[in-house]
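Exercise 7. Given the components listed, write out the predicted structure of the assembled complex. Treat all entries as one system.
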Amino acid sequence: MSHPEPLLLQAYFDGEVDALRASEIEQHVDACADCRALLEDLEQTRIALRRNLSYLSAPAELRSRLTRALDRESVSQVPQQSAWDRLRSRARPFWFGAVSGGVAMAAVAVLAFVTWAPTLANPLVDAVVGAHVRSLMSSHPIDVVSTDRHTVKPWFAGHTDVSPVVADFEARGFKLIGGRVDYLNHQRAAVVVYEHGPHVINVFSWAENRRALPKRATVDGYHQISWRSSGIQYCAISDTGADELLELAGLLQDLGARDVQG
Amino acid sequence: MPHLDAAYRFARWLARSPAEADDVVQDAILRAFRGFAALRGGDAKAWLLAIVRNCHSTAVKNDRRRAFVPLPEEHDEQDGHAMIATTADPESASILSDEQRTLDDLLLALSEDYREALVLREIEGMGYREMATVMEVPIGTVMSRLARARAALKRQWLLAERGTRVAP
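Answer.
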């Protein structure tokens, strides 16, 4: 093979050529000092940029400003809007507008109530947030550090009253990093700790009792997803996106259901 | 908030000051949140960074429109300094190495097209396809622009090493 086009060599360097093309280029590069020098240059630039310019991350102040803005948004975002628009788009007598306005207001009130009431009424929701935040601030958020569920799960047996579902979903982006014991709702809770990108997800679990948690809640920007399975109350909490949290909760629920069957 | 750091880094390399980057990111995140239903299945990071880029160019356009109206104080001068000064705030600036500072300057001296191509590829680790989404150009353009950007940075780097670069 003669010298590859500069753009092709660059694509090879960026991992953007197929395997066949890559092996052709590799063969050529082995024999060609010029091309090797070019690749070396590209590599040096990359290393310098990555080493020196990856330090920026979103400041905490911006993060909390955004969390507040999004919280406002999710409450004020009116799913009734489409109904509202439909009502408005029809030719309608004067009173119709007044009534539809009233309906929309009522709908917003109901939405706000449904969204906030369980959160406000349930001190347990706040307790979980408190425990989560304390764990993030503490110097050892994990009592048993392990990425192996066969280490974490038996550890709980000796330290808590429940044996929660523990699994590593690293392939799905949820990396098991360990377990911890916490005290919540007047009993010991088992906490399984996952890492999702830069976020820590705590999955609290305790023997279920009369006080259930709402399925979903958001407090201070922390999302909570709760469910019950095999006599255990679970609550996953994190500052990661609600969708990511739902995904992890779904994975754990599936696994719990399979355990029961198996 | 997934990809917030990436959005912020990208905004910082596009915007002329940290405060402006904050505004661009906030704008973009809210827009992304409202349009979230439209995403489903696509690449979330590329999608979000494309929104950041749009928010930035809107901000620049609005700025330029405002600039036509003579202002009581002279803003432009300050903006110019903000652009040349290293991007970090004072605390973190003090811990930046000389090499970092030089690279910051070199990158900021490149045109915005080149800068964004380098940032997306080398710092965010994006593939050509994702870059094409963010930059709103065909993949062929991504490739040629990236090649020119790399060459330009290299040239600047060599000049800086020889010390012939005029200090900004």
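Discussion: The interface with chain A takes residues 1-2, 4-5, 7-9, 12, 22, 25-26, 29-30, 33-34, 87-88, 92, 96-97, 99-100, 103-104, 107, 118-119, 121-123, 127-128, 143-144, 146-147, 150, 153-154, 157 of chain B (CB under 8 Å). The two ends of chain B are 37 Å apart (CA to CA).
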